[in-house]
Amino acid sequence: MISPDSFIRPFPFFMYERGIVVKGKFAYLICILSVMGLLFTGCASQSQDKAITKSSGDYLQMTDDAGRLVVLPKKPQRIVVLSTSYLDVLYGIGGKAVGRPSSKTPQTFPASQDLPEVGFVYNVNSEQVLALQPDLVIGFQGIHDKLVPILESSKIPVMILKMKTYDDILAKVKLFGDIAGTQEQAQSLLTEMQTKINGVTAKLPAQSKRVVILHATAKNVTVELENTIAGNVANILKIKNIAADSTPMVGDGEVTPYSLEKLVEGDADIILVVTMGNMTEIEKRMKADIESNPAWNGLRAVKTGKVFFLPGELFQLNPGIRFHESVEYMAKVVYPEVYGNVK
Predict the structure, then answer these.
(1) 24 band by pLDDT with thresholds 50, 70 and 90
(2) How many Cβ atoms are within 10 Å of 107's Cβ, its own excluded?
(3) pTM over the 0.85 mark
(4) CATH number for the 205-339 domain, one of 3.40.1380.20, 3.10.20.30, 3.40.50.1980, 1.10.1740.110?
(5) How far is CA 124 from CA 83, 101, 130, 259, 329, in A?
(6) Is 24 exposed, middle or buried (0-12, 13-18, 19+ CB in 10 A)?
(7) CATH architecture assigned to 52-198
């Protein structure tokens, strides 16, 4: 894995949510107000309980991000988590798991380091999951949906969740606190996270900068919108993403097609690059799609050396409860004169 130090270096072609009786008109008024109160209370309860409810006989019911009703008859004791981001959330609110995904990097919480592994996040072994006899499996939407029929056939509750933006993360912290019965710890974590982010945003300069966020793989280069991790971080930092109003690609609502002409038109102060895959192959692709066009070298960000890599563990993979680190990192890249340089 590329060390964080390497992400700030210049690239060869650029740097990267009882009883009182009343009569007459007064009684009528009270009646009307009471009915209205019940209506508003009912609406609020429905809104709040749409995701999480506790019914008689069951520990918890919720509608997951795939639109599935998930019922937990009792408090889960054997949770298998298929995503490191969710594992960090679970341990961050004081919960525990009996199985986790494989990872090439050390776990954020040492207590989860020696848990049985069930394969890497994109290649989970369902037999290893079943062998752990879980009473709840938590997976990532878009990655683990295919495991649902297998696990449900063994009568194992499965939650398929998404976590991309900061609001998503806050919602998952609360949800996991309800699942583990550690609501106070969850609230404490939420407060801590927000305090750290507030500490960054409190120092934002009055004049915001304009950025474009490229997403580079070995196959293509696209431009990220506001609903990506980097796009959401930029929004929190009140940084203008020049592609924010662009039309999303068909089949991928998080990016828009790359266009050097639009980059030239927008001429951002800074170009940020999020990568996924083999760096050697990505460099080849970017040289073919970008460097070969002379207009690239005329961009303001290129001429001033303001094009930077963003570390994958903070901007490609969801940082989860480390989201504040993503905010701090981008703040340093975009406003080094305020926050200091990335180390």
Answers:
(1) very low
(2) 16
(3) no
(4) 3.40.50.1980
(5) 10, 7, 11, 36, 31
(6) exposed
(7) 3-Layer(aba) Sandwich (3.40)
